[in-house]
Amino acid sequence: MSESRTPPRVDRQLRALQLAKDCAALGARVKTIGHLTGLPPRELLRMLFPDRYSVPRGRPPDSPEWYHGANLLYRAEASIVVSIYRRLRVAGFTAADALVTAYRHYRGVCVPPHRISFDRAFDLVAHTDGLWLTGAQSFSVVACPKCHSEFLAAFGSIAMSNDDCPFCKLVQRYATDQRVQASYPVRPLPDMALIELGTRRLLLQS
Ligand SMILES: [Zn+2]
Questions:
Q1: pLDDT confidence of residue 2
Q2: Residue ranges per domain, the chain?
């Protein structure tokens, strides 16, 4: 007896709907969800926001301009989201799945209030990989030669010094800046075995 198989088109549709639901739960705008899933905005509006009151509104982000003038804490959090996203892409995740998983992980590791919205994360990733909104790449993820953290920089940059590294600047300001202390509170040293388990789980989620 042959095993019955779900037609791939149904699979694709179900995956798109699940992705749409996940994005909406993370606060995505209808237009963003449309880009990520390929589903028509009118249909998304009807399915995800039937009352229309809860539809996220506001201007879409424009990250290539925004990032370089943003406050240090925003640049650090933007770098965290995109560097997690890039690692998941290298591990084989699709761009949309990597974005959703990276954004969830960012919300799990950074202390609220979270400065990067899902729409901002989408826009940063789009302008890093040249996806969805644009064919142009405006950012590269580079490694700081001093602290070895990965951060966002203008596309094609090579970090020769730590001058633009937001994490080195956070460390320099830590002792005197209460906002920085509140965003990165001192925590007991983590159990490395648990971190390894968490990373493995993250890579298995897709
Ligand atoms: Zn650094």
A1: 47
A2: 1-58, 61-204
The whole-number pLDDT of residue 195 equals 56
- Cα(158) to ligand 1 centroid in Å equals 13
- Ion ligand 1 residues within 5 Å by Cβ: 144, 146-147, 162, 165, 167-168
Backbone angles phi, psi at 153, to 5 degrees: -140, 170
CA 147 – ligand 1 centroid, Å: 4
Q: Which residues pair with 150 in a beta bridge?
A: 143
Q: Note if the bond before 60 is cis, omega within 30 degrees.
A: no
Whether 25 has a pLDDT exceeding 80, the answer reads yes
pLDDT tops 90 at residue 106: yes
Beta bridge partner(s), residue 151: 142
For the beta carbon of residue 20, count every other beta carbon within 10 angstroms.
22
